[in-house]
Amino acid sequence: MAAQGGLSAGTQFPDITVHQVGKEIKTGELVKGKKVVFVGVPGAFTPTCHLKHLPSYVDDAAKFKEAGVEVIFVSVNDAFVMKAWAESTGADKADITVVAD
């Protein structure tokens, strides 16, 4: 059963281009063959996203990894801001992927 507004298991993920510093990635490549939680937030370093959303996933990163699930965050910020956000929250060390749209 899909989350409200989400995709059902096995549904093809929309293939869009996202960005990390120095590279562009198609989401189809990013999620292919994986179980993922794809989280979209309105902005890195915004109060709720910075203090609640991403840190809660960092705190539970080991549980996601144990379950074979990769966590990916996307926001409208540029790739440099997303990299800085991952570093400042520990998402990079928790193997949480962050990308810019």
Walkthrough of the structure:
This protein has helices at residues 27-31, 47-59, 61-66, 79-89, and strands at residues 17-20, 23-26, 35-40, 69-75, 97-100. The longest helix has 13 residues, at 47-59. Strand 1 (17-20) and strand 2 form a beta hairpin. The chain is globular. The protein is α/β, with parallel strands linked by helices. 21% of the residues are buried.
Topology:
Blueprint: E1 17-20, E2 23-26, H1 27-31, E3 35-40, H2 47-59, H3 61-66, E4 69-75, H4 79-89, E5 97-100
Parallel strand pairs: 3-4, 4-5
Antiparallel strand pairs: 1-2
What characteristics describe this protein?
3-stranded parallel sheet; globular; 101 residues; 4 helices; 35% helix; alpha/beta; two-stranded antiparallel ribbon
TL;DR?
This protein has four helices and five strands; from the N terminus they run ββαβααβαβ. The chain is an alpha/beta fold and 101 residues long.
